[in-house]
UniProtKB/TrEMBL annotation:
PROSITE patterns: G_PROTEIN_RECEP_F1_2. This is G-protein coupled receptors family 1 profile domain-containing protein. It comes from Desmophyllum pertusum. InterPro entries: GPCR_Rhodpsn, GPCR_Rhodpsn_7TM. It holds the Pfam family 7tm_1.
Length: 299
């Protein structure tokens, strides 16, 4: 009993941190015009998914452990996370592999991609209501199989392929630059490519962390679907709560420490709080180019 109380207390603390950290990310993008890029728009969508985890899912699990709503919430958060990762990957793939078409494509499909990501995640997660979520039915087993294979494994396979192509293209660009005579244009291109590589690495770490942290849930769901609950260690139920919390907490930390535009914005916030005024800071890449996505049309 005491052990459960400690776990619940830790999860409560983590859920508060998850909400605060991800709300901070959303507010930074809203209040800083330089952060209002399409790339960061996808990251805000992912942050909203994390806020749902910390602000809705965990409170439900802690207050009503056997609530049927928790299963639907887990599915919505998981599938929306995967869908947002697909959007982020598409954004980076177009930016690196088709830079001249980036502005046109991202402006055309940005809102459509976000809406599709959330509508599909919510609609598919609520589909079991059609058969009262009766886990003994064959249709539910088929549903779980389609969710895991079609909505998790297949998207991540495509994401892995996309990032292989992204880093291959970046290597080709760097190789071409080495063969180019030194000039201002070359230095600008080298700076842009270096920034592209950093953003791609951050996004890849983000996606890999999410996949690893959700593995316990995916494993338990698969075991239940095939009628083998005995192969799920009891400790995994507790471990999964912490891995989910860490996944949603790592995301904003990655942006703050590894993504240059967020890091610069955070420095300005701390400078303002410490000195009562903002001192202008010179950013290494002050003009947002295709590497971070064109600016959102928000005043």
């Amino acid at each position: 009993m005491a052990e459960n109380s400690i776990v619940d207390a830790l999860i409560t603390i983590l859920s508060v941190l998850v909400v605060l950290a991800n709300v901070t990310i959303c507010l930074l993008v809203i209040t800083n015009k330089s952060l209002r890029t399409y790339t960061n728009g996808f990251l805000v969508s992912l942050a909203i998914s994390d806020i749902l985890l910390g602000g809705v899912l965990f409170p439900v699990i802690l207050t009503i452990p056997d609530s049927p709503a928790s299963g639907y919430l887990i599915s919505v958060i998981l599938l929306s996370g995967v869908a947002n990762h697909c959007c982020i990957t598409f954004d980076r793939f177009i930016a690196v592999c088709y830079p001249f078409s980036y502005s046109y494509l991202i402006e055309k499909y940005f809102m459509k991609m976000l809406l599709t990501a959330w509508v599909v995640a919510v609609a598919f997660s609520l589909l079991p209501l059609c058969w009262d979520t009766d886990q003994t039915l064959t249709i539910h087993e088929v549903y779980i199989f389609v969710e895991i294979v079609g909505f998790i494994f297949l998207p991540y396979l495509l994401i892995i392929i996309a990032y292989c192509l992204i880093f291959k293209k970046l290597r080709e660009h760097f190789k071409l630059l080495k063969e180019t005579a030194v000039s201002i244009t070359r230095r600008e291109q080298a700076r842009r490519l270096s920034s592209e590589a950093k953003v791609a690495k951050v996004c890849l770490i983000l996606i890999a962390t999410f996949a690893l942290c959700w593995l316990p849930i995916i494993y338990m769901t698969s075991a239940m679907a095939v009628g083998r609950p005995e192969i799920v260690p009891l400790v995994l139920l507790t471990v999964s709560k912490f891995t989910l919390a860490m996944s949603s907490l790592i995301n904003p930390l990655l942006y703050s420490f590894k993504k240059e535009d967020f890091r610069s914005a955070m420095k300005k916030v701390f400078t303002r709080n410490a000195n009562g005024q903002v001192y202008p800071t010179v950013q290494r890449n002050q003009v947002l180019t295709v590497r971070e996505g064109t600016q959102l049309d928000v005043p």
